[in-house]
């Protein structure tokens, strides 16, 4: 744990307790949030829904935030912040338990909305609480510590997702010997509900410490007035350093706070640097949220990995790089003593380097899987197109096959067929995963017309390309994450201290509304356009996608991600210009203020000297008179 204070033992222990409690709350919410990301494909297959609808479910978390975040951030900063955070953690746990319902996807959506409502106070109230009662030079390091520990949450979230993805969804209710599919199959659904039960318990435990914390803490370090003599206290009472730390106002009524809300919000939105920063982060978060939401799915579809392996790699390789980057960013900001402009340049530079490295992802391509009638015609001519009639050909015309089924088999010719019927198979031996189909007229291998269950394993260069993809992903994640903490501290420092909680809350509101909600939806809708074979629901209608056009998927997914980041870099240019002007203006005002204060103090000193001089002269005159009288 980061060392928190040099104050007496009780305040120091309270500071430490809050830092640990907030870190655990961040860990819990990050674990459940990342677990939701890891179950994207499981939920698609379980409820037979397309990617855009999964995007709606994923974005419902942000809808919950949207409902209450502005008011929680504003009013919560004036109330008992730790207890409000505790209530939020309890609501998050209830929502997580609701998600584990197996019957309908609407319960997943409603539970995620409640999770979003509960998560609302944790970030703005927790960070502002730390920043109020920690020394300014250590605030960035403490925020970096909390955010780094919170990134450990996704590691365990994705690992939990990997574990649950290996377990069949109906384990305990069906005989596993009768299951004919494997975790690598596009129809496999893991025990996604089990992870939500575990995440709900962890989130409920994170609420406990906040019930025992006070409404406010004494300021740590030498900045508090209790560390100063009365003369020092009177001298620094108007210092901007002390204005930065403001205690909660116990005497303010709810009506007074409500009247002050809209004027305060108007003042905040009138700050040009804050608005530019808001626009840049909204666009970059659109890119980031869309990319992270569908990255496991991209690994599954493009590199043909199982959901379990994709989640495991995200948790073990990618997320630790993000954690290390965020912690290193906070440490570098403290060591380099970066000011506002330095923090902005640092965050921009790391993001730009990560952007250029990400361009190399376009070169890491894999060929489409060989599926007869989908990516290949039955005479093995390479044509990536899908038409229901192309599945039916002379070799299976007498079988009366359904073109909407998806029950793939692998022929001896290393070509996947949509179903045994469409492969022209008329017999089978064995059971479960060991079933072998025979007399498959479409397979066409002389003397051997058999096929086995499942898709054919890929034999192209994808296996050799995948490690390079992982290595580049780790490097770019680390570099981009370096700018996370400096960028966040820039947000806190670029506005007036009394607007800090509202600025953090409105920033979270805007990013969730304009990035967290729409990004998964339109990313999912664009990914849906690259689908080559849709599943069929039992009651009719389109289900989940079974196979994608790999090339189109790569271009759509990576192209959209990098296009959004390009736009954000362009907006940064006027942002730096406005920030430079603001800093110059503040510097001039500071100099004028110092001169004015110096002139006032000089005037007072002159008056004091004049009074003292007159007093001395009077005393001297009196002494002279006494001497004269004595001599007389």
From TrEMBL:
Domain Kazal-like: 389-444
Superkingdom: Eukaryota
Chain intervals with Low complexity compositional bias: 612-624
Region (Disordered): 610-632
Subcellular location field: Cell membrane
Recorded topology in the membrane: Multi-pass membrane protein
Domain Major facilitator superfamily (MFS) profile, chain residue ranges per copy: 18-584
GO cellular component: basolateral plasma membrane
Record field: transmembrane: 12-32, 52-77, 84-108, 193-213, 274-292, 312-332, 344-362, 465-491, 503-527, 555-579
Catalytic activity: L-thyroxine sulfate(out) = L-thyroxine sulfate(in); L-thyroxine(out) = L-thyroxine(in); 3,3',5'-triiodo-L-thyronine(out) = 3,3',5'-triiodo-L-thyronine(in)
Keyword Endoplasmic reticulum found: no
Database matches in NCBIfam families: oat
Family (UniProt): Belongs to the organo anion transporter (TC 2.A.60) family.
Protein name (database record): Solute carrier organic anion transporter family member
């Amino acid at each position: 744990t980061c060392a928190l204070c040099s104050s007496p033992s009780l305040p120091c222990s309270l500071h430490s307790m809050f830092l640990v409690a907030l870190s655990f709350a961040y860990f819990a919410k990050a674990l459940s949030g990342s677990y939701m990301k890891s179950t994207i494909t499981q939920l698609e297959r379980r409820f037979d829904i397309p990617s855009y609808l999964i995007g709606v479910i994923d974005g419902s978390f942000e809808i919950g935030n949207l409902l209450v975040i502005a008011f929680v951030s504003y009013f919560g900063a004036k109330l008992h912040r730790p207890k409000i955070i505790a209530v939020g953690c309890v609501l998050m746990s209830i929502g997580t338990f609701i998600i584990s319902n197996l019957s309908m996807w609407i319960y997943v959506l409603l539970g995620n909305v409640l999770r979003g409502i509960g998560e609302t106070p944790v970030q703005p109230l927790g960070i502002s609480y730390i920043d109020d009662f920690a020394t300014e030079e250590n605030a960035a390091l403490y925020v970096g510590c909390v955010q780094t520990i919170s990134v450990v949450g996704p590691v365990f979230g994705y690992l939990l997702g990997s574990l649950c993805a290996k377990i069949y969804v109906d384990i305990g209710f069906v005989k596993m010997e009768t299951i004919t599919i494997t975790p690598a199959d596009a129809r496999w659904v893991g025990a996604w509900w089990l992870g939500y039960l575990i995440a709900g318990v962890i989130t409920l435990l994170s609420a406990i410490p906040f019930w025992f914390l006070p409404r406010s803490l004494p300021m740590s370090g030498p900045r508090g007035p209790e560390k100063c003599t009365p003369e020092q206290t009177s001298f620094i009472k108007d210092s901007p350093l002390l204005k930065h730390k403001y205690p909660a106002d116990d005497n303010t009524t709810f009506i007074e706070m409500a009247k002050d809300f809209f004027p305060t919000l108007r003042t905040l939105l009138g700050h040009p640097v804050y608005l530019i920063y808001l626009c840049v982060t909204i666009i970059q978060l659109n890119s980031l949220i869309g990319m992270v939401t569908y990255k496991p799915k991209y690994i599954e579809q493009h590199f043909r990995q199982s959901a379990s392996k994709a989640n495991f790699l995200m948790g073990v390789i990618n997320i630790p790089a993000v954690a290390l980057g965020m912690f290193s960013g906070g440490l570098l900001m403290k060591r380099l003593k970066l000011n506002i402009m330095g923090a902005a340049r640092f965050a921009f530079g790391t993001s730009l380097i990560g952007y250029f490295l990400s361009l190399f992802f376009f070169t890491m391509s894999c060929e489409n899987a060989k599926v007869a009638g989908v990516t290949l015609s039955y005479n093995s001519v390479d044509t990536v197109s899908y038409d229901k009639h192309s599945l039916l050909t002379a070799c299976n015309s007498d079988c009366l096959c359904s073109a909407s089924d998806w029950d793939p088999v692998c022929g001896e010719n290393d070509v996947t067929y949509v179903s045994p019927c469409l492969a022209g198979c008329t017999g089978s031996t064995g059971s479960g995963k060991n079933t072998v189909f025979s007399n498959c007229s479409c397979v066409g291998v002389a003397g051997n017309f058999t096929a086995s269950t499942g898709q054919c394993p890929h034999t192209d260069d994808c296996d050799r390309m995948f490690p390079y993809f992982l290595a580049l992903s780790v490097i770019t994640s680390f570099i981009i994450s370096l700018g996370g903490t400096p960028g966040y501290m820039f947000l806190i420092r670029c506005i007036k201290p009394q607007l800090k909680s509202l600025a953090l809350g409105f920033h979270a509101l805007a990013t969730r509304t304009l990035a967290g909600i729409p990004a998964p939806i339109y990313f999912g809708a664009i990914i849906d356009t690259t689908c080559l074979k849709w599943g069929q629901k039992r009651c009719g209608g389109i289900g989940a996608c079974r196979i994608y056009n790999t090339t189109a998927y790569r271009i759509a997914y990576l192209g959209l991600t990098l296009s959004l980041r390009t736009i954000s870099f362009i907006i940064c240019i006027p942002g730096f210009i406005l920030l430079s002007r603001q800093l110059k203006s503040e510097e001039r005002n500071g100099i004028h203020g110092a001169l004015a204060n110096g002139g006032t103090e000089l005037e007072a000193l002159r008056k004091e000297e004049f009074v003292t001089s007159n007093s001395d002269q009077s005393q001297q005159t009196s002494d002279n008179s006494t001497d004269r009288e004595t001599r007389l």
